[in-house]
Amino acid sequence: MDITPLVNGLYAIPLLGLVFQAIGYLVAVLPPNSSSIMSQATPLALAALCGVLCERSGVVNIGIEGTMLASAFTAWVVGVALNPMFSADPSPVFGITIPLLLALAAAILVAVAISALHAWLSISLRVDQIISGTIINIAAAGVTGYLDQLISKNSPAGAGEFVQFTPPAALTNLPGVGWIFAMFLEQGPIGMSVIVFIIGAQIWLFRSRWGLRTRAVGEHPRAAETVGIDVIRLRYRNVLIGGMFAGLGGAFLSIEATNSFQLGMTNGRGFIALAAMIMGRWTPIGAFASALLFATFLQLGQLINISPPGGDLGVVMGAIPAQFFDAIPYILTIVILAGVVGRSVSPAADGVPYERESAT
Amino acid sequence: MSGSAAPGSSPVRPSAGLAARTWSVVAVPLVVTVLSVLLGAVIMLFSELLVPGHPFDWGLPLTAYGALVNGAVGRPEAIVSTLVYSTPLVFGGLAVGFGFKAGLFNIGAQGQFLVGALGAVMAGVALANAPAPIAITLAAIAGLVAGGIWGFIPGFLKAVSGAHEVVSTIMMNYIAVQLLAALVSGPLKVPRSPSPVTFDVGNAAFPIILGPNGHLGILLAVIAALFVWWLLYRTTWGFEIRSVGANRDAARYAGMRPKLITVATMTFSGCLAGLAGTSVLLGVTHTMTSSFGTTVGFDSIAVALLARSNPLVIVPAAVLFGGMRAGAGLMQIKAQIPVELVDVLQATILLFLVTSPVLRRVLRVSSPGAGQPGEDLGVASVDAQAAAI
């Protein structure tokens, strides 16, 4: 049966027609871009995972943005510095080279160091955790801006980048489900590993002893300490592990998604990730799903400029300034915060510094 | 190892000796500034290694700092320029500090700054040919109201739904950037102009009251600081704000309405940040381009933290950072040190400032505050419920 007249009839109804056109546009445009959406989601998901690990143990970390920026810069600088020293051809899988691996390691190291600073300030010194995170953001923006100015005087060559894996076309061309394979397999090493980390963290947080302890410390540190858990040490450990994921997300920006560093290239991703974490109710899988939603909107903002929809929908959207579509992820973040936060309950001791009972 | 001295166990505040008490107040800011300057020197020496082709110069930090100080206060015009740079920082610092007093962290000063400038330019262009007193007053009010709206939204959302102001104000910053770009390249753009730029504000521009470029905003900033001090310490509303900041629950039991205070504080904070944008637009640039944007947002947080949110201390703190911004240009010319060094110095000052519990132990000075975490920053206690970010 030919449904074209029916579809045309639906499109003809004003407003409802626009809705159908919008759905038609999304169905047409999103699956072929599933791989790019996953690339947008990768730094968000890694940053959100960092947030989950910190906050489940009771430490608020809004310095994720700065941590990612610093590690993106580190990865790029180390790549630029080491690239000329090694002449070996990149490996056929992922385009891995020794400089790239060292750059990745350096990025993670820097992120862990910054997280250690945040942990020391907020856990040991019991500085307001929001202030500590903000100072990390200011410091990261300042230091990367200063060093970038100095290094760009040398007009550096590229740092090299990880290359996307190309899954067999037979798999990605499968009708109906091919785009799912493309989404998870048409990725570089960091993008492909995200789903593994997410599932791993989900199992770890809800099925392991450490996970149970983490949640206990985040909900009621005093009770946890009573049964012999070292609250301070566990918080330190979680913040440092979280830092590794933030570092991975930062490195993704400068040596996998692009081959460059720009000032402030994290562009609020660290904060959007926190909203994704809240929307995902402090679970790794929930945070990942929310990150995918945000990524879809980030990608849509670009797609609308590249291949604008036709018909009445195109006319309506053409009248809206392009900047509006760029602002959608940020507006969405506020809407989600305002709408979800009341029903999504944070760990009880989140953001509250812990003070040991004085020894007697 | 479990942290600084617990409340109650901190050393007893010396009741005698004015010198000792003064020292306990100035020791930390002084040591923090000296340490930051030293660390800045180390960073400059280190950064010489990054740029090959120059002979290594041990005196570079001295040259750079000399140029920085010279550019900030070397000549009468330089001092006026420092004051011009400080003006938006006073407004911005007051905005952030005012929020701190109520236990609110307004990181949205940057966005409120931009939207305030946007409001001022829209009104200013419309009133460009009106009599100057009317044009200036209305344009400044437009900037104030625009910033206030941008602060009201996160305040309202926080009161109604609990959305944390830190994330929502940051998002408002990004939205402000897009709004500004859309308006300046759209309805506000001068027709047939090759680049996106608005018309001049004409008669709505602030008059010059000091030297070559010292505009009326300098005076307004000082008045604003006095007004905010009066508001916080001499009015009922100020008392309620400080009470809510000190203990939300106690304030509620005492009959105050913390939610209302939250909305009012964020709105007023937005108004102040909007005036920061207004002062730059009406006092300095007079037109707006799509790249209109500064570091005022971050700088304001630094100013408020350094001044421990005290409205009267915010003025000298703003002059310190304003002077660094004013002198940075000469430093870049004389010593080839990028102006971004100021951002680094600012960050190190903040970093040393938050570690002040350690500094206090090293220096053996007691705290002027009540011995609570955050006392050195003048930030009211964190609302534990609101930490859900």
Class from helix and strand fractions of chain B? mainly alpha
What percent of residues of chain A are in strands? under 5%
Q: Give the low-confidence spans of chain A.
A: none
The average pLDDT value of chain A, as a whole number, equals 87
* Coarse structural class of chain A: mainly alpha
The run of helices and strands of chain A is HHHHHHHHHHHHHHHH
The main pleated sheet of chain A reads as: none
Shape of chain B: globular
Annotation field: number of helices of chain B? 14
Number of helices of chain A: 16
Query: Do you know the CATH topology of chain B?
Result: ABC transporter involved in vitamin B12 uptake, BtuC
Which two chains touch over the largest interface? Answer: A-B, 57 and 60 residues
Number of strands of chain B: 2
Q: What is the CATH class designation of chain B? A: Mainly Alpha
The proportion of residues forming helix of chain A, as a percent range, comes to: over 70%
Instruction: Give the percentage of residues in beta strands of chain B.
Output: under 5%
Q: Number of DSSP strands of chain A?
A: 0
Could you say what the CATH architecture of chain B is? Answer: Orthogonal Bundle
Structure description:
The complex is a heterodimer of chains A (360) and B (389). By secondary structure, chain A is an all-alpha fold. Chain A has a domain at 42-264. Chain A is 70% helix and 0% strand. Chain A has helices at 4-12, 16-29, 34-56, 64-82, 98-124, 129-152, 169-172, 178-185, 189-207, 209-219, 221-226, 231-257, 269-279, 284-306, 311-318, 322-340. In chain A, helix 3 (34-56) packs across helix 13. The longest helix of chain A has 27 residues, at 98-124. Chain A is globular, with a radius of gyration of 22 Å. The mean pLDDT of chain A is 87. Chain B is mainly alpha-helical. Chain B has a single domain (18-380), classed as ABC transporter involved in vitamin B12 uptake, BtuC. In chain B, 67% of the residues lie in helices and 1% in strands. In chain B, strands 1-2 form a two-stranded antiparallel ribbon. In chain B, strand 1 (208-210) and strand 2 form a beta hairpin. Chain B is globular, with a radius of gyration of 22 Å. Chain B starts with 17 loop residues before the first helix and ends in a 26-residue tail after the last helix. Mean pLDDT of chain B is 85; it is low at 1-14, 369-376 and 380-389. At the A-B interface, helix 6, helix 13 and helix 16 of A face helix 1, helix 5, helix 6, helix 11 and helix 13 of B.
